[in-house]
Each structure stands twice: as C-alpha cells, then as structure tokens.
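Protocol check, entry for the methods section draft. Step 1: assemble the input record (protein sequence plus ligand SMILES). Step 2: submit for complex structure prediction. Step 3: store the structure tokens unaltered in the notebook. Ligand used here: zinc ion. Step 1 record:
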Amino acid sequence: MVKESHYLVRFDDICPTMNWEAWDAIEAHLVRHGVRPILAVVPDNQDPNLVVAPPRADFWDQVRKWQAMGWTIAIHGYQHVYSNKNPGMLRLTAQSEFAGLSYEEQSSKLKKALAIFAQQGVRADAWVAPSHSFDRTTVRILKELGVPVISDGLWPWPFTEEGPMTWIPQQLWTFRSRPAGVWTVCNHHNGWSDRKVAWFGEMLEVYASRMTDVATVMKVFQGRKQTSLDRLRATSRWTWTMVRSFLVGLLLKAIGTKPEAA
Ligand SMILES: [Zn+2]
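Step 3, stored output:
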C-alpha cells in the first residue's frame, strides 16, 4: 500500500437539512461500488447555509445505519457557526468555529458535540473541522476526549503523533490522479446537480481499484511517524493550494458566483 496511490472520499456538512435528493443518489453510487466514505456530521447545525431541504426526521437513524455499514462518522464541529476569522494551524481558510478560542470554550463546544453523538448512539470515529480551521488546543482536547483520527492536512501520508492521534490527510477537492500517497477527496454535495452526481458515479468507476477506507488505512499506517519529507511536500502543496484558490476566487468574482460552503 505504501508504494501506490490510494483514495478516500469524504462528504462534509452532513445534517438533517442537507440536499437529500443528491445524497440519495450519491449513497446508491457508494453502495454499488462498495466504497466506505468519511461522513462529516454536524452535531447541532445552526448554519443557515446548510439548510437546503426540509429536515429528515430519520436523520440519526441514517447516521447509525451508515456507521453499522462500516462508514466512518466524523464529528464536523459543533454548530458549524464561525466565531472568528482565525485560519488555525492549517491556514487554509480565514474562518473558524474553534481556532483561537480558549481551552474552556473549545472544550465546552466539543463536549456538547460529543454528548449529542452519544445521545444518538453514534461513535465519533474522527474529527473534521468546519473550514479546516482548528489549532493545537483543539487537538489536545480531541485527544483528551478520545477522538482517534483527524481528517485534514496536506501531507502525502497518514501518521500518528503522541496522544495518540492519527492524522489522515485531506488534500483534494476533486478526483485527480496523484502519485503514491493516501489522498482524501473532500466533497460538499449541497450544491450538486444531477449532472455532478452522475460525474461522481463515473469517478468511482474510474478510481474503484484504488479506493480505500479508514479502517484499512489505520491498519497500515497507525503508528507511522511523520517525516521531514511529509512536511516539505505539505508546504509545497499548501503554496499551490493557496495560489489556485486565489485564482479561482478571482475567476468566480469575475463571473459573479460565490464559492461553495465549507
Ligand atoms: Zn462544513
């Protein structure tokens, strides 16, 4: 596995008022191809941008069903409401629900978020920060609360740091052929058309033989230490990601479209 490229898929902003029409079709594609994704579930969504359909009353039944199918359920913040413009340790976006807040404030939010999961009989398999923004205090609290995995960062390979905490990187926002590494493709389906959903199905077809899941990644990489080459490659990837998102921002501004929600 360490000499090949492997892909994980992640869907963010999973909540009762998401785009269910697109989701039902996406779920069918995932099941057909036997792909076990990371689903980033918002415990108590208060973000109006994530209200795009009437709430589904059986939402938590669905989450429990996905977890029972071996899909990875991540805790996606607490309420998905930004407190500040702190870019956090990954410096990818300038908005955060967590980064820059005190230990007490972050701990209170994370405990409330995990209490909702516990009340619903859902295990927090991983952490996915809204807008990729969190800091070392968030990581410390996640370790204390027993969340085992962070899905984020631009490194090519997963690694485990003391605590313990295993970082499974998330470097892509669309399917792209990449060299050896574990590549997580992050998706936001709230704005997806039928055409985009069909495209996703085609991508699963193309990448089927290289798809993996969190359980497999953990078996191979848990305990691996981060190397200086990992850090170097993440820095060059960060620079490229920033340049590209700046250029895309300029383009979207020119044609009068807002970028997708994080
Ligand atoms: Zn989000």
